[in-house]
């Protein structure tokens, strides 16, 4: 760990170094005329007193110039889509002058987009497979019962759901275990409520979502496939305000305000099914008691020479059953995330941020069935300290350096009949650093090269992961892009589909090789009009050392190493072509996407060593979204078509005695065909929503009407074979039917 | 019109499928062997059938492979098997039936006219002798009493005062030899429980049980494979439904038996999941060349007790 100490110390000290207090300064925020939206990445040039300096507004639209002398300065504010604005400032003493700028939208300024666009816009121009959806867009997407940003992503091309009841994402041939899910850059390990039906992210406090479908940059690491970074709203209210909403199963409230110079924000959501479930519960029909809740809170201040934010998330699900006759169950699971973030400008050209975070996931099952007790308890504690330095060397060149250190605490215990059967504990740590160079050698070309280095205490393993993205514009409306990189996965998710409460993560110790992927993405973006973007991307992912949960072990096997828990040494690939057309017009907005994909896996110990498709291998996938105003209504519809999911059909029937009881009359057994060699019928579904402002008790509100699965197609979920009868019966278990829902949102 | 539209929405868009579309008859007429050798007991008869179509009734007579030549070789001895017209799928040892020996390798050879050939081998575990059987208190922290064994009392164990147990009174634990199954040349343990008094009353009456749930309760059952990592294997109460005499067996398994029970899809009441539930519907591990099935062995020990209704 000598290397860690030598790098970390100076960086940490650099961030905490106090700035001179004697100098004058100009600080302020940049907002948009009309909607007060804080503008990010506005390029600001300060000229005067024989000097020229530059700054870029941060995510809260904040900028600052420090260490200024007295005199007169001109400030020029430049942002894509807005008219350039110049303001004059006169500093008479060593004062801190507040100077806020309000920019006027201007459709004619698009020629400067290459560097000066918003962060997400610039990212999508350089980065392959990148999609940013803001809250406004997320809210337009029809939902089922409760708005959910993760479920909303399922209408994007290349993104699939395991089922109607799952918020897990299958992205470009990879499973949820290969996705890194972040909340403002902090890992969230099991972001689900209601056994996976909803995500833990309350749509009211989500600002936007960045999705890297593959070939993600060096800033991120630790997963083989994709990155989903959910950016929460920043506390930046000028006065107290709030909003609330009610859906069929939950109520939610959001409040924000100011505390002196600081800002705060609190939101909460809780299901209110408990009284309904209690009313219909009987001795004969012991319906479980169930609730979930989540709380988000954030406090931001600019007291210490920069912006400091404390952010807390806590969510929990709890289900309880008391069926008498020595039969009870109590399951609870949830996440807690606490993050302290300090961001500041270290000089005119260097920004820095330091993040201390703790992300904790815990799930617990304590049950008794007919006087037999069993319990499962697992916990993951991730303490991370991370810092990033952004050096804007010039208008065309920036360098980003990040360092992080994570301490993990895993525990997994399982007991049956009051006897511990599994007791697993591990406390590894991980050091990671990345260096990324972003360079725009010309207006047409952009490059981002990076490398991520990781050191794992578990096995004392070192990993070097190169990443590269290149974009080149052939003309103002046509760009070519290429991206790729090497990725390793140390933490492995063991997921139970349809029952996310049982999901847990375990580190891959040295008994097994970590999963590794090489990704390559080639793409082209074409903007045929100012309101239309069309992208075409091909991707190929080569997967090595894949792991799959080994369910062929003794019920009480004492798991101590990764190779005892997983089937190891899997190989695979995912390849595909993705076409995406997005339209943002006055009459309507929306998109149409199509993905043609192939994915295969090979394990020596599975399927006789022959390759097989993972169940989420889909040859064709079509997604469409349309959103349109109609009078006072806002209408939206989303449609999805996908090739049927792969499944394993029954191939033959045979008979064996149960050797332990020697029962000669035992039912016959079913022999499966090759793994995932069958296909369910194609999946398709249409969801619609309508919103309009209403007035209730004199209060303005928004009425939300939604219909999930409008034409009530009962899509196939899986096939179940029943061998109780003389003839094996196959039963198709279907997914959700038509579900209408109504909700109300209001501000206060 | 509105009703018609509603009906269309509710019923018209659900795709229906023929049963045949949900099967993939890839492995028809594959040889299936079935034999479990128990140490200390005579060599068992061996069943030999072939796989049938999954969506047709299984008829062992129709599935029988009648024309096989079958031998089991142990050390230098070869035992020849033959079937009978009455039950053509069952092959019996010709001549005397030798007892299965511990720590011994048995090799099966099946040859079919036309060249088809099936082979398998099993190495039997050591003799299993449980150290003791005890009744623990409900929290499993202290011993209430030691149960009497068949070696001590024969069939009188069922009347022995130590072996009278009230339902959910405590935990019945078998103390296995230390060192895990490997110490006995085995790969795992398996439990089996038999309710011997047919017609005895239930000791459970959960309010959430319906009549058909009671009908589904069996008088015998077996467990998944176990490792006995802490030197004891406890009987779960959820396996006991009836009052009366119960026989509780513990097997230490050879590799073939262990691999089969750990890999066969969980067939709770005959239900097996296919498709996307965890991708768990996979072919079991048979360890047989030229076919599927079981040619495995085990050693066994047992205890008997009497279950009385609880409070």
Summarize the structure.
The complex is a heterodimer of chains A (748) and B (311). By secondary structure, chain A is mostly beta strands.
Could you explain how this protein is built, in words?
The complex is a heterodimer of chains A (748) and B (311). Chain A is mostly beta strands and 748 residues long. Chain A has seven helices and 48 strands. In chain A, the strands form ten sheets. Chain A has a 22-stranded antiparallel beta barrel. In chain A, strands 9-16-17-12-13 form a five-stranded mixed sheet. With 311 residues, chain B is mainly β. Chain B is built from five helices and 17 strands. Chain B has helices at 2-11, 60-63, 150-153, 211-215, 255-263; strands at residues 31-38, 46-50, 69-74, 77-84, 87-93, 105-111, 117-123, 132-136, 143-146, 164-166, 171-175, 188-195, 220-222, 232-234, 244-253, 271-274, 292-308. In chain B, the strands form two sheets. In chain B, strands 1, 2, 3, 4, 5, 6, 7, 10, 12, 13, 15 and 17 form a twelve-stranded mixed sheet that branches. In chain B, strands 9-8-11-14 form a four-stranded antiparallel sheet, with no helix packed on it. The termini of chain B are far apart. The interface between A and B is large, with 95 and 97 residues.
Q: How is the secondary structure organized here?
A:
The complex is a heterodimer of chains A (748) and B (311).
Chain A: H1 2-16, E1 24-32, E2 43-48, E3 51-56, E4 62-68, E5 71-78, E6 85-91, E7 96-98, E8 101-103, H2 113-116, H3 119-126, E9 130-134, H4 135-140, H5 149-152, E10 159-161, E11 169-171, E12 179-183, E13 186-187, E14 192-193, E15 198-199, E16 206-212, E17 226-232, E18 241-246, E19 250-259, E20 262-271, H6 274-280, E21 289-301, E22 307-322, E23 328-345, E24 350-369, E25 372-394, E26 397-416, E27 419-426, E28 429-439, E29 445-456, E30 461-475, E31 478-489, E32 491-494, E33 504-507, E34 515-529, E35 532-549, H7 562-565, E36 566-584, E37 589-602, E38 620-630, E39 633-642, E40 646-647, E41 650-654, E42 669-672, E43 678-679, E44 683-696, E45 699-708, E46 716-722, E47 729-734, E48 739-747
Parallel strand pairs in A: 1-7, 1-8, 12-17
Antiparallel strand pairs in A: 1-4, 2-3, 2-5, 5-6, 9-16, 10-11, 12-13, 14-15, 16-17, 18-19, 18-48, 19-20, 20-21, 21-22, 22-23, 23-24, 24-25, 25-26, 26-27, 26-28, 28-29, 29-30, 30-31, 31-34, 32-33, 34-35, 35-36, 36-37, 37-38, 38-39, 39-44, 40-43, 41-42, 44-45, 45-48, 46-47
Chain B: H1 2-11, E1 31-38, E2 46-50, H2 60-63, E3 69-74, E4 77-84, E5 87-93, E6 105-111, E7 117-123, E8 132-136, E9 143-146, H3 150-153, E10 164-166, E11 171-175, E12 188-195, H4 211-215, E13 220-222, E14 232-234, E15 244-253, H5 255-263, E16 271-274, E17 292-308
Parallel strand pairs in B: 1-17, 10-17
Antiparallel strand pairs in B: 1-2, 2-5, 3-4, 3-6, 4-5, 6-7, 8-9, 8-11, 11-14, 12-13, 12-15, 15-17
